[in-house]
Amino acid sequence: MHNKQPSNWTILFRITALILSMFLLSACSTRDVQSELNGSTSQRLISHSIDDLVTRLDDPYLEALKGQKVFINSYFINHSLFKKYADKRLALELKARFGADIVDSQEASDQVMTVFYTSLATDFDSFGISIPFGYIPGVDESTKLNILTLEMFHGVSEMYYYVGPTGTENRSKVIHAKVKTDALGLPFITIPLSSVDRHDSWF
Q: What fold characterizes domain 34-122+153-179?
């Protein structure tokens, strides 16, 4: 019994399908998700969200800080540069908007602001229809082909604080800020739905 050899058309179809599959795989791209915020998009998402966070300070107790020496005592789960950046941005806001005199120690202060950061990070979520290729040997497990997906990449900052002579009085509400760049994922292209870019005008 002889095995039936595939026709030239069958061979051509298989080669075409293989080339197309390789092209589709190369068309897949990874969004700028960086655990250490090395990517520009990640850095802007988190820094803009911190900026939005501190500009939302709205507390009558902060109005009483004008002319007062204020020490900022802050806490975060991850003792990183994110926290240091947020502290500096917060100190500038207290000085510029509320007239506080920021000092380096509690002993030298009239008022203490005890800050608890509950988020200084980025989130990435993807919803929709996609084909995973991570099961193919030699292919990264996160590789996928988007058919129709909504990709949401957000910078999220959140905090609450106590303010008073000892930093244990007058608890604030939780302040939350989110900056996003969303996109529609299709097989060959990704269409931006929002932009993280901010352009301030100077006159």
A: Rossmann fold (3.40.50)
